[in-house]
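Z., the sequence and structure:
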Amino acid sequence: MKTLLKYALVTGAGMGLGKAMAIHLASLGHNLLLIARHGEGLVQLCDKLSRLYEIKVHCMEADFTNEKTFGRLEQWLKSYSVNILVNNAGIGGSNYFLDAKIESIDAIIKVNIRATVLLTRLLIENLHKNTPAYILNIASMASCCPIAFKTVYPASKSFIYSFSRGLHQELKSLNIHISVLMPGPIKTNMEISSRIDKQGWWVKAGLQKPHEIAEIAIKKMFKQQSVIIPGYINKINWLLLKLLPKNVSIPMVSNAIKNELPEVAAKLNAHALAN
């Protein structure tokens, strides 16, 4: 390592929850390594946090769907000592599976699953040298239940939940603490806000702002809590999804998602009439 300074690395830091995580960690005095896609204002954010909180901030624009990204990341990270990893980068969205493009499905798998696992593996020795170390993986309440019209997204988040719990058990003796965050719906931009508004009161009841979730998650992460569910409503929803039979919970949650896709309902009706 070229420096003795320790850094917190946050992926998907250009907007939404990732940006809120970066800001909150900066406010606590942590030096930052920030990763986001091109065009998300990452450089400006780095400059702002560096000046505002008088910390070291470095950034890298990267696309986790690009096969060459991890080679670049590996070289870049050799210069830094990392004691916190926040695997926040993720892709979601709702669609009729018959209309989903192969490229879109592949992107969800690459960003939500592959990037989290490979980046964790890439940094594990680095984290081990800088204990106590922390990994915060971002799953979702969607990981608790299969959902029609999302299909691949909740499955990817279920993977993150399982991966995080297993890794927590494996690494806790090494003083590397793994937490998995299970947020409910988050209004991060106009498109997502519009979709959430169409899902009904039950979904909207669990809404939280990115900075609220970030503050809770980071606090619980440092307390070494392995599963973090922010907000009382989300805790109730999590319990309901665990207790309800899947033949009840899957249609219930799926119908809420269908409300944001009126064209899906029309297509399903057309298929039903055709058969």
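The chain has one domain: 6-274. Confidence is low (pLDDT under 50) at residues 271-275.

Let me know what you think.
H.
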